[in-house]
Each structure stands twice: as structure tokens, then as C-alpha cells.
């Protein structure tokens, strides 16, 4: 591949300035390191219709109350922090540069996907006919998470004069990105102080006004001509919440002068610090300049990409988009995140949609982390574990037992789901019962179990995981009630993953009964909790049961429920999404498509028409089909049989056909799940959904929502389609299993994974699978592919199907690794 083509595969590039596209570009050009992230907003801009400077640090939340529609609502939000890249310039006391008024000749903005560096290049001619070229770069260090760097090189093409830079730390920012939230309070920061730790530096301290979290940023700004540091004339700027310098230097025609800004960021939530301002000031002089910091940063990214190598040949732009998705995943959660007490925010650290809350979306994210950076999953699961007491309290307050995790989680683990939401189509504030999505607990349990399957981390299971499984199982056992008429257990008043069904017509907020996904997965959780208990050695098991007060009669009730939970079916054997779903009306999909075009948010359309989506067989996203997403047919069949239901081979395609025809795909998760479930029977349709999942953010297919924050689960889920779905890769029962249904049209896949400390390189194309022992594999392991099982030795490669082509020989990249005894 030529260097140019390779660069294309590693670059997200925008040619030309388009103010209407700026919000989307800002979100997609975010640079971050899993500790903080900054939108790719123009450094000279402040918040307006085209621009939104946003910087968010993981876990920095603040609560505010507002009265809307006559009700007081409280919302906790991820706080927009001071705009650290703020910088602009002017010539000979003219107007400050502003992209919206400049006479642009050329404009190009690109994000280097390999090293998360954002570059913006422009040429413009001003009203006095002077031509100037500008290059701005920025990155947020993956190496030292408290360091951010930006620079700006200005070339006077055909003029000489006085060049003046302005560089500030701008703390006069609010949370105003999401138009739907504009009636809600958004001022989270109050200024504390601005100081000048040394001649070339300023320090800004702000504090969140409810959670009381201090945030300190210090900036060192210097001016350069080539390698020569210029003694620019400096003027200190001091305004409430804002501080910085104006720096002036002379520039001659043909010369380039560069402003360099190195920033340190610390918050009151950091570890290993005294207090944020002291650390920001102490660390700033220790850091080198742009090039020095770049070295560590690029090395850290190179190491991450070694672990996240996912190469797909063929299918147009797929490779580049996969890299974009992995990049944004790692900018939201990275090894830097593992030191923090945070979860996985559904919209990344890229915007303000859903206020930075943590949902079930980690279900779609962890499979990538488990097989590459399991320590990170462990840390993110500990975010849930620390909030177990709060979840227990929530269950008790609702009259239940065990742990009831919140649908939306923020700082302390209380339920953060909004109670009112605005339908922008009708302008009405409506009640929002999405807190009824107690299936979040199932996701937490599933994640615990799958982390354990991928890592065999018994310490985690013993000290944290088993307790979470037990408390979540206990919750479901307490929520389930025995229905004498049916002779089975039922679960009433919940919401399933499909958010269109909040209740029955006439009782829209009361939830629905017997959501099949919830009921089946509740049983799965109970069975896994029993497995976890059984797998613990006697003493830790006794300690756990004593700690949580688990009684033998509870366990026998669990077993009973696990055999007799009710699952609703339609007459033709299709699993019913919930009790009574079959009695709802069919929607005239063609009519609505013809009338509105995009009907993803059918709920909003119908409400604005005075109707209610609860009346229809219409889903926002996969609900019953989530069962086939999370569990393979090999797991589901025994589970249904255990429950006393039949599970014939035709059940999966029948359900897919039924629900696919009744889904509006109003959630970005929908494409991922549908690609997954279609992969076995309708490979080409699955590829269509896969390609749709790839488009989710880069093409903003939800129409404006990506600008408010990336859809992290869809991004990670699309990569996982390659990793686990089309490859049929499973980590189950102490084995790595492969069962590829690889679509020929996707070309060849090569990816690195780490299974229980075994580094492996998988190569899949068509029907062929190759598994090579990766760097550092030191003992043999068994691998199964379809009906074959073989042993992979260090330094060797296996091929499936074996046939004549079976090899078991040293792979070229590992010939140097001597085989070790098991
Ligand atoms: C989806 C949820 C998802 C949430 C956050 C909603 O639109 O319906 O399933 O958890 O977005 O991504």
C-alpha cells in the first residue's frame, strides 16, 4: 500500500469549511485519553449555532434543579470544563481571526486516527489583501493523562507586520450543547481564582457549584520562530473565569511564527495528588514542549494499537471507520480510566447528550476490552461494585430485595433517569418512566460473567463479581411473583430494551408485564449466580452467604423460578415481546414512511399527532431479539428446555422476521443487534446492517444526534461484529470457540486478541480460520473451531478446517519464541 493510501486509512479528513457541519465534525474530531476529552471545536470560537467548545473529564458530574412544566426536576450532568485550547490571533491590531468571517482560500481539517492528533490548516486573505496560512494542531496526551497540547503556526505569505496571539483558559462556559435541554439549568462552574505561577504561565481554578469538585488548569504559552524562542511582548488577560495572555511578535513576509500551549489539568477526583491547583502548577514546568510530549503520546497510542489491531481487507471504507470507532472508544475509556471511579458514558466524553450518564451500553463495549485490556473492564465493573450499596438501597426503597441498579447512573449510583423529557416535535414535556428498565441489572450481571469467562479472574469473582451476581439474582427473585393461574412466575411493571413500550394504552407509565427478554435473562442471571456460588471454594462461599445473609430457602426459590418463569409466546410460536403485545395494532409503516421519511423516532411522531406508540406493534430497537444477541442457540436451547418450553430450530429466523418488520431502529444499537442476529441465516442482510452500524456516527444517520456525542455502544458493537459475530468467537466453559459465518464480501479479517493471557492472532477469510500464537504465548491451549478441537503450541499456527491444509508449525512472527513447558 502506498504511503498516501495508508494515510487515508488512518485519517478522518474534511475539506472546506461548512458551518452547518461543524457540530458533527467537532464530535468526530474529539481528542481524548480516557481521562478527559475535548471536542474538535475551532480554538477561536465560543459557543454559538456552529461551534461548541466542550471539554469533559470522566466522572466530573454536577447536579442542578430546574422548574419545567410546573415541576421541579433535578439532573446530574457531566460538566463542560474550561476551554483549554482557546487561541486566536490578529495582524496589526486588526480584528481577531474568526473562521466565520475570514476570506478563506483553503480549509482542511483532519484527525490522525493512529495518534489522535487534530490538525486544521487554512489560508485566507483579509480585507487588506494580506494572505496568511495557519496550521493548528492539538492532542490530549495518552501517555500523561494530565497534559494537553495545542499549537498554531502562522505564516505571513505576502506581508510583514505585528502578529498578536491571544491564548486563554476560558472557564466562562456552560452546558448548552443539547437544544432539547435548553430550558434546564446549565451553569455548573463557579470561578475560584486565576493566578500566574510564573512569567509564561497562567492557572485557572474553577469549582462545580453543587458537587464541589475543584478543577485546575495551568497553561504555558510560548512563541517560536523555528527553534528560536521569541521574547514576545506579553499582556496578561484577567476576566472572571478567564485568564491568559496576548503575545505580540514581529513577523516578516515568508516567515512562520508559532504559538505553543502546554496545559495541565487536574481535578479533585484525581488520585496521588495534594490538591488540583498545586498539581497543575507543579507539573507544568516539568513538561517539555509539543515535540517532547508527542513522543510519549505516540508511543502510548502505538502500544494500544498493537493490542487493538483489527485489520479488514476489502469493503471500501470499512477499515478506516473501524479505526475511527476504536479510536473514539479508547479516547473515552483507556488504561488512564482504570485509575478512576467511572463507568462507560453512553455518548463518550464527546458531548452532553444523556448528560454523560452510564447505561447498559457497556454490554456492547466490554467484549472488545475483555479480549485486549481486561484490567480496564475490571476497573469499570468496580464502578458498579462500588454502587452496590446504593443499588441495594434502591431495591429496598422499592419494596424489593437484592440490588436494583439504576437505568442511568452517574456519580453516586442513584437513579439519574430524567422524569420528564421534551418531545421536540410537539414541544410538550412528557413523563418518562425509563427508570423501569430494570434489565440494566441483567447487563451488569452478564458483564461480570463474561469478564470472568474471558479472564478466569477468580479473585474478581470471589471478592466482587459473585456478590453482584447474587444480589442481582436476588432482586429478580424478589420481583418475580407466582401466578397461580399460569402455575409460573411472572414479572410485572417493567420496561424492556424497546423504549417505545412504557406501558399499556391508558396506563402508559406503568410498565408492561412479562417482557420476554427480561424474564428469560432474569433466569439466566439466577443460574449464573448459582454457578458462581458453586464455583467458589467453601470458605469464600460461606463468607459471601454470611455477608449478604443468603438463606437456603432463597436458593430453593431461585431454583424453582429458574424452572418455572413464564415466557409469553404468540400462537405461531413467536416469542411475544410482552404480555398482550399480540393484541396491539399493526402500524401502517408504509404510510408513516411516505409521510415522514425518517421514522426512527416514531414515538415522537405519534405523540405529536396526538397518538401513542404504546398502541402499536412497533419497536424502537431489538427487544426479544436481544436474547439471540446475548446468548447463542447452544445456550438458549437448554435454557428454554430448563424452563419447560420447546426451542426448535426455526424459532430464531421466525422471530427475526417478525420483529424486524416491526422495528423503526430509533436507537443506534439496533443495527448492531440486527446484524448480529441475521448473521447466521441471512448473511448479506447482516452485512447491510453491519455497514449501517459503520455509518452510525460518521454519517450521523440519526440526523443530528452525533453532534451531541458519539454513540459509543454502536461504535464498539460494530467492531465486535467482526470480532465475535461473523467469526463466531465465544469464550465459554474454559474454551475459546470459533464458528465463523464470515461473509466473503468482507474480505479477510486479521485481529489480535488476548484470551486468558494467551496472545493470539486470528485470521479469517471465507471458511478458513487461522489461529497463530501471538508474541509471548508461553503454554499450549485448546481451541475449537466448529467440530474440530486442536492444541495450539507457543510459536505455532493452527488452521481450520484442518483437512490436508492443517498446519501446526512455527508462525513467522514467533519463530524466535522458544516453546515453554505448560
Ligand atoms: C437506547 C438505549 C440506550 C441509550 C443510551 C437509547 O436511545 O434506547 O438502549 O441505552 O439510548 O445509548
Q: Which runs of at least 5 residues are low in confidence (pLDDT < 50)?
A: 804-822
Report Rg.
Answer: 28 Å
Shape: globular
Query: How many H/I helical runs?
Result: 21
How much of the residues is beta strand, in percent?
A: 15-25%
How would you characterize the overall build of this protein?
There is one protein chain. The protein has 822 residues and is α+β, with helices and mostly antiparallel strands. It folds into three domains: 11-306, Glycoside hydrolase, family 65, N-terminal domain (Beta-galactosidase, Chain A, domain 5, Distorted Sandwich); 310-730, Glycosyltransferase, CATH 1.50.10; 731-806, Maltose phosphorylase, domain 3, CATH 2.60.420.10. Strands 1, 8, 9, 10, 11, 13, 14, 15, 16 and 19 form a ten-stranded antiparallel β-sheet that branches. A six-stranded antiparallel β-sheet has the order 20-27-28-29-32-33. The protein has a four-stranded antiparallel β-sheet with strand order 7-12-18-17, with no helix packed on it. Strand 17 and strand 18 (242-251) form a beta hairpin. Helix 20 packs antiparallel against helix 21. The longest helix has 22 residues, at 458-479. The radius of gyration is 28 Å and the shape is globular. It starts with a helix and ends in a 12-residue tail after the last strand. Beta-D-glucopyranose binds next to loops.
